[in-house]
Amino acid sequence: MKAYFIFVLVLTVAYIVYYAVMITKDLHGNGEKKKSEEEEFDVSEFDAEESVSVVENDKGFNVGDNEYETHYVDETQSVSDDKEPESEKHKQDVVEAINHRIEEKMEETHATFSNPYNSAELYKLMMGKGLGNSPSNGGVTIKPAIDEL
After folding, report:
1. Where do Basic and acidic residues bias regions lie (predicted)?
2. 28-86 pLDDT per residue, tens
3. pTM for the complete prediction?
4. What are phi and psi of 68, to 5 degrees?
């Protein structure tokens, strides 16, 4: 046998013995008192805390000696549409003024296509990976280099 196989054999036997001893210790204990599954917490510090009463009433609620007043807003009430808040009208006026200033500086443009295709030609171009016999190429033959590799 080679030295490597002897080393592997000895190491395997050592691991087997080691794990057998560890499993036996875990199963039978190692002389210590077994702990129960219950956890114990020290709560002696918490005796100094006092509870605070919380009372709810019609106007709000009380926490200890402090009183807090709350107001109920009925969301089912509808606000009439013709009565917009003054701040909302002011915001709309500002937006309209900004839009008017921007529109004064804008130029009117017309979009045109330099080389339009119909649906059949576009389909051929997509199938040909963008290469086709278009009149704009001036009779130049395009041969992809990837096909030659």
Report:
1. 68-92
2. 876 566 666 778 888 777 766 678 888 888 888 888 888 888 877 777 765 555 555 67
3. 0.23
4. -125, 130
Tokens of 96: 């309209």
Are 134 and 115 spatial neighbours (Cβ–Cβ below 8 Å)?
A: yes
Look up residue 139 and give its two tokens: 């009779």
**Closest-CA residue to 115 (of 136, 130, 133, 129):** 136
Helices (H), 48-113: 86-105
Sorted by sequence, the CB contacts under 8 Å of residue 115 that are 6+ apart come out as 134, 136
CA-based nearest residue to 63, from 55, 73, 71: 55
**Sheet of strand 54-56, all strands in order from the earlier edge strand to the far edge:** 54-56, 60-63, 66-69
Query: What would the pLDDT profile of 107-127 be if each residue is shown by its tens digit?
Result: 888 777 666 777 788 788 888
